[in-house]
Amino acid sequence: MLDVIGLTSAEEELYRCLLQLTTARIDELADRLHRPREQVVAQVEALRGKGLVQRSDNDPDAPLRPTAPDVALGGTLLRRQEDLESARRLVTQLAEEYRTGLRRHHVDHLVEVITGARVLRDRLRDLQNSARTEVLWFCRANPLAMAGPENVEEFDALARGVSYRAIYERDLLLEPGALADLAKGVAAGEQARVLDRLPVRLAIVDARTAICPLVPDRDGGEPSAAVIGRSQLLDALLALFESHWRVATRLRLDDPLAVAAPEARRPDPADQPGDGYQPDADEARLLSLFVAGVPDKSIASQLGVSRRTVQRRIADLMAAAGVDTRPGLAFQVARRGWL
Question: What range(s) does the HTH luxR-type domain occupy (predicted)?
Answer without folding.
Answer: 276-333
